[in-house]
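Reviewer 2 asked us to include a model.

Predict the structure of this chain.
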Amino acid sequence: MSTAAIELRALAHAYADGTPALRGVDLRVESGESVAVVGANGAGKSTLLLHLNGLLLASSGEVCIDGVTVARGTLAQVRREVGFVFQDADDQLFMPTVQDDVAFGPSNQGLSPQEIDARVHVALEAVDALHLAGRAPYRLSGGEKRAVAIAGVLAMRPSILVLDEPSSGLDPAGRRRLIELLKSLTQTRVIATHDLDLALEVCARVVVMHHGRIEADGSPQALFADSALLRHCHLEPPLGGLPGPLSSGRAA
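Predicted model (structure tokens):
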């Protein structure tokens, strides 16, 4: 079997006060997959994502990225492969201009000025934000900030993108642009979201979390049609309905 892009083995995590957040999570994500992680507040979605590039380290169990175990000694290597987009874009945008923000990561990789400029151009073009290059981030709309935050990650050329609630706070037009952007990307994508309609459009696979465990793992059409599962995990079905024939899900 080939090496997975992401593999979690019996991953557990407890907060400093002893509260368990993840309880023995096993998950394998293949290269190029687009996987939505859904669940109610407190289900463990964000905590799981924070382990994927070492922002949190496992209390027990193991996280592997392209066969490399995430540990203090491998964080630099892992973070070259895993780009993380936070829920609040303001957590990532802090430079005077959009150009400077997107260039920040590549500038710390020891690249030449010409290569940095090329990466910034390609990344901003990918998110349709070249026209924002000279703008101050604080003057951008929520959707524009989200696009620029994604561009900053893309400029690092990661093989895996991890996005925490990317549609949060966006107006309908900004959300639609985000969905089309996410659909166009070729990297392995793991997206934590409450937006089941976004998951249905962008992801071929959904992982449902409940109380720190994976409750179900399968196609969005199958899992979102399972009313008992959604009720149990305190989720509502997609507002837009479920197009097409159902696929078979696989219980975790």
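The chain has one domain: 6-240. The longest helix spans residues 113-126. We have added this to the supplementary material.
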